[in-house]
User: What shape does this take?
Amino acid sequence: MTLAPKDAEAALLARYGGPAKVATKKVIGFRTPVGRLLAFDLLAKKTRIWFQPPAPPPLDGVQLLPKPDNGHSNLDPFKPLKHPGTQRVLIDSLEALLRFVDWYDGKPTAAAIAPALVSAPVATARSPGPSASDATPTDDEDEQAYSPSRGFPGSEGTYTATRKDGDTFLYLAKYEGDGNCLLSRAKLPGNGYSVLKIGVSNDLQRRLKEINLGFPPAAKKRWAIAHAVTFENRKAAEDAEQAFKDNSAPKLESLGDEYFWGEESDALQIWARIAGVVQP
Assistant: This one.
């Protein structure tokens, strides 16, 4: 079984909203939310995707090819993919494509989103030490090493995208770290306050990744989706979001925009009074 490039194109247009640059007659490319490029040949019979390193883990339906064959001029608009380290995979189905781009996007794989607590995966780096090379990793350690990323050239051109209204989440996110430290405030005894964020999205996992993009990969603490509920359209979700903001005082202190400071239990009392929201 193979995936036709035209089907891969439709799936990736729906996922990313448009190509990274105006597609040539032969090659189309896309840029992920974190700035990584991928591209493939539109005229081929099979979907073979060029992408930036590293190589993916074993994924069902995704075959890593021995040679990238990335020297031809059709890749000129996507110069980072002409680098010698570029990789290429053969995709055999739409499901395999989604598995691959989920990995390439760094998307969490948790099945349940709401109302369970979902946090973005946090990578940790081992602290260097005089005996680091001889040390045996513990359960709390990770072998990943971090290095600076490369910048990417800007994109030009025009593209069109169609956005459809539909099910939209209202979510309450919580910063998992020390909010007092984040806000440069003294921590008072018995103060269980947290930094909270209210918002709406039609894709919770994507939104969680977006709001955590400001943290470096080695950060230990990030945002997590604490509670979420689905509304039938974006307008209803936005009205619920505004109702939460309008009723936040005096229980919660506004930190500006959609951010608040206070007890999560107080936030949930406000949450439960919003029309359409069932108390967790």
Summary: The two ends are 44 Å apart (CA to CA). Helices lie at 5-16, 94-105, 179-182, 204-211, 234-246, 264-272. The chain has six helices and eleven strands. Residues 5-105 form one domain.
